[in-house]
Amino acid sequence: MSGMERCRVMLEAARIIREQREEIATMETINNGKSIFEARVDIDISWQCLEYYAGLAGSLAGEHIQLPGGSFGYTRREPLGVCVGIGAWNYPFQIACWKSGPALACGNAMVFKPSPFTPISVVRLAEIFTEAGVPKGLFNVVQGGAATGQFLCQHPDVAKISFTGSVPTGMKIMEMAAKGIKPVTLELGGKSPLIIFSDADLENAVKGALMANFLTQGEVCCNGTRVFVERKILDTFTKEVVKRTQKIKIGDPLLEDTRMGALINRPHLNRVQGFIKQAKEQGAEVLCGGDLYVPDDQKLKNGYYMRPCVLGNCKDDMTCVKEEIFGPVMAILPFDTEEEVVERANATKFGLAGGVFTRDIQKAHRVVAALKAGMCFINNYNVSPVELPFGGYKSSGELCVTSPGTCQLQGLRVAPGTAWSCVLTPALPCRIWQGERPGSHRVLLAAEDCLRGDG
Ligand SMILES: NC(=O)c1ccc[n+]([C@@H]2O[C@H](COP(=O)([O-])OP(=O)(O)OC[C@H]3O[C@@H](n4cnc5c(N)ncnc54)[C@H](O)[C@@H]3O)[C@@H](O)[C@H]2O)c1
């Protein structure tokens, strides 16, 4: 198909998703355990992603290069072929769209393997693609776990691998890709810093900290789980965060007013609680939560619910501060100076995201420029507009080719070693946590401000 033809099919898929938003969001809530309120946002981001890449499909073009003596050369944009997408369980439908959107827009085929913990919603996506006119066999879903993932990565007919998951699995994927000399996109874990300066709008900073820690039961790769708070406001900030955290409504994720559903499964719940136990042994103080939550509703009593936890008295070398917990656990760490906090924020193997809350705009941009992180938020957190690249530094993934931003389009000119770093600045304070739709945020992005390095 030509780019324009691909565009039309993808726009139709986006339209169907928009039309079936409620049904797919309900399916995603059952699939993953996140609140219906959040699942709707995921579905919106998914159709927006397909629309975005549909828009780019028609404009993909090669170049004509004039040579001496009247000769000329030209480049063609060609699809890679069969791309494999392997997804994590926290954003099943959205990850599948983030991977298939750019792949299909560029004329590739995709074999997608969801996590075995969230197998269903991506099957609905395959049905929608078929309904929209994607030729049979161009988007395929294969169910399975590690063995299936390995088989796909090692298959000689596979041209590229796009993976979202943990760092240890990412390493294995990269090894397998290396053996086949296959390009690979890795979107891995994080332990991101959130820096709250004493001049910040306290109300907004508190809401930002909740958004940075407790969306999707804390199972979000870019969460700002190391919350550095300037010592002057430590007590006030901590008191307010604890108060708000205790008010988060936990329970049946299909109810409209629920803000925190169930964790993905029992072993993961046990693992998260193991981190809290270890944190206590290492001297941290549980300021709230961390215990199991048993809903009154009998049919939910065996669900994997826990109360969101805030840890005080944390030190940089504690396990709960160093390792990705991937659950609703926030660690609060005091700091005194800007220089000190930047150094501590960067002292991690990860580099997915970072956030700064301050009223001083120069300080905000200075600090995010110094953070070694792929995405930085100023006075906001965890918003992911599809127009922006998404990816990390260091062990959080490789830099050159991230998704869902334009640089994931195969063949786009992103020089090896080029780092993309996005900075998001809000025009409105963080309100999503209060129940407003993300549409109420106007995301402002100034190109000169958002790119650094030679990107
Ligand atoms: N950076 C991002 O964009 C992003 C987004 C979501 C989640 N994550 C990360 O994902 C992790 C949580 O997800 P998870 O527990 O599903 O991760 P995981 O690494 O256990 O599994 C991810 C996927 O890889 C498959 N898999 C496992 N072993 C494999 C192997 N040897 N070969 C091929 N495939 C294999 C799994 O079946 C699953 O589909 C967290 O670390 C989180 O930070 C990152």
Automatic annotation (TrEMBL):
Indicate yes or no for the key word Transit peptide: no
Reading the lineage from the top rank, the first entry is: Eukaryota
Recite the UniProt keywords alphabetically: Oxidoreductase
Residues annotated as domain Aldehyde dehydrogenase: 1-397
Q: Which InterPro entries match?
A: Ald_DH/histidinol_DH, Ald_DH_C, Ald_DH_CS_CYS, Ald_DH_CS_GLU, Ald_DH_N, Aldehyde_DH_dom
Report the GO molecular function annotations: oxidoreductase activity, acting on the aldehyde or oxo group of donors, NAD or NADP as acceptor
Where are the catalytic residues?
A: 187
Q: Which Gene3D superfamilies match?
A: Aldehyde Dehydrogenase, Chain A, domain 1, Aldehyde Dehydrogenase, Chain A, domain 2
Concerning PROSITE patterns, the annotation shows: ALDEHYDE_DEHYDR_CYS, ALDEHYDE_DEHYDR_GLU
Tell me its family. Belongs to the aldehyde dehydrogenase family.
Record's protein name = Aldehyde dehydrogenase 9 family member A1
**Gene of origin?**
ALDH9A1
